[in-house]
Fold:
Amino acid sequence: MTVTVNGTVHEFDRAMSMADLLCLFDIKSDGIAVALNASVVHRQDLSQMMLRDGDIVEIIRAVAGG
Structure:
């Protein structure tokens, strides 16, 4: 399965949820926003949202500052 994450193409040999992907990249769901194919994924849906071949994922981390 091929999934593009923040502009980089990744190959995976198994099906996974969005939560699995975040875990694989060691990203905690606090303080981030996730979009799948240009649609926002709500935090409570991360474990049920299964990725499919060709999906495009954008992960945005909130940064404090001023």
In short: The mean pLDDT is 94. The chain is about 10% helix and 35% strand. The chain has one domain: 2-61.
